Amino acid sequence: MGPEGGGPEYSRGPGGFVDFVRLAGLAGCRPRGAAMNDAGKRPVEGVEAAELRRSLPCRKCRYDLRGLAIGGVCPECGLAVVDSVRAAIDPMAGRLPRLTNPRSVGNALLWLIMCLDAAAIVLTGRALGLRLDALGRPHLVDMMPRGVVLGAVLVAVAALPAVVLLAPPREAEGIGVVRRNLWRLGGGLLALAAGAATAWALASELAAFAEIEESLLLITLALGIAATMLPLRGILQTIGERSRQYRTARSERQRAIDMVAAAVGMIAGETVRLAVRGGDLGILATLGGTIAWISALMALIGFGYLTVNAVWIRRALRRPPPTLHELVTRANTDEG
After folding, report:
1. What is the DSSP string of 251-274?
2. Mean per-residue pLDDT for 101-121?
């Protein structure tokens, strides 16, 4: 977050590549003639006097390694101290542009995703109630009256301040793409709010639209997903790289393009169902409805994963990993 504009500041910070090079030297550049330590590893020449100046749990047994030489081993399990150091720091994050207010960025990102979660739950909840009501089970539709659709309008509008907080300052360099994505994201949120309000108004005022309210709600959600996930993809790539957990995750990392694919499935399924509604092709209507609801379920699962991803990123921004300089100090260095 910038000092004036309230957003990510893209200035290169030192430490990331330097940390990587130093750790490569500590872990791999070991002289052949050095004696073996208790863990069967050769100590690193010239770093025996480098000690950990802050608490660091051992990667294997969680013993506090503070005060131990970086070239030594854990007294509890024998794991090399440098292995725990290498696991604690994140050289890649150190090479990325710094954020002057990372806490606000992390909070804004999580709030944005949570608002999208709420809008999706409201729209699908009402649509599911209508579907069950058509099957003779009106219990859920009684719990999700038509007025709850306005809740999707409110949470979509409530997400707009997060877009403002994510915006980088105007004087920052190389952030044109980020700003364009944020503008598109804001437009997508407004489109979602407008679509939900329109679906509510049509179903409330016109009986003909009340019959297809379920389709209106699912299509509205699908269009909102497509309008927000495409710009959010670039924003997540920019901010999420600061989280090692997000960066290295595979199955737990939700791809925005998969959310868009689910939205396409919802639109296609409901379009087929509406096109053959009341005709002789009932099996196509059933197939279209099935595709739409499977896609809606996948979208809801995707929103759950996105929330977990946002929590990872927020945690990394609020408590960034230490740098090698912060962890290690030479014994002959004056710290006073």
Report:
1. TTSPPHHHHHHHHHHHHHHHHHHH
2. 94
